[in-house]
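Notes from the 1:1 (GR / supervisor)

We went over the backlog. Supervisor wanted to see one worked example end to end before approving the batch request, so GR pasted a single chain during the call. The sequence is below; no edits were made to it. Supervisor asked that the structure be written out right there so they could see what the output format looks like.
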Amino acid sequence: MNVHTSTDELGGPFATEGEWAEWVKDYYREDETYDWVDVADNLRGLESFFHRNRRRVVRGLVRRFGGGEPILDAGCGTGLNLETLPAGSTGLDINPRNLALVRQRLPHQTAVEGDLEAMPFADASFATVVCTEVLEHVPDPELALREIRRVLKPGGVLIGSVPARSAVWRLRFLSSTCPRNEPFHHEYRAEEVREMLAGFEIQRIWYSSLRFNVLFVVQRPGD
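Structure output shown during the call:
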């Protein structure tokens, strides 16, 4: 099982991985105040350019590879990608502050509070799931991916990305907007992503042009 734990990442005297996982989730529920939309739209730091490009790339990938509607943005944050999706799409996030901003900014979308590892949706609810720059923060990404597969319709498409193993992420501290206290920020090689997506039919896995990220398009097998 690919769980994001290490001696350095535990951050405290946790008796079990479950306690550690809840500590991580509590950070994202209660402490995180990062606003991806504000950073992207108002050029608040170096990360502004990354988020603007991510929004543009995701919009294009959904148009090219999306499996249709309804669409879920899993880990929607404050709505960076959700705003580019068709009206009536759903954004899921664990942070109620993020969802309040989404409801204010995007009243034509549905905002749902929930845990990516235990999503509050019925089986086969969505034709397309978008999950970009989220799995690297999840305690158990393989469990999250099983949940995504569960809520996808047979033949449904997952479009996602994670940070690649790149020296650029060691320089995140140079950005004035970079969170200083997040529990961890995992990075991946393409072969690690392929292994993690073993329950899906892989359509494409590739590095972004500057090799900052690994992008993927996969499909839930048809029943």
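Supervisor's comment: The chain is about 30% helix and 20% strand.
Batch request approved.
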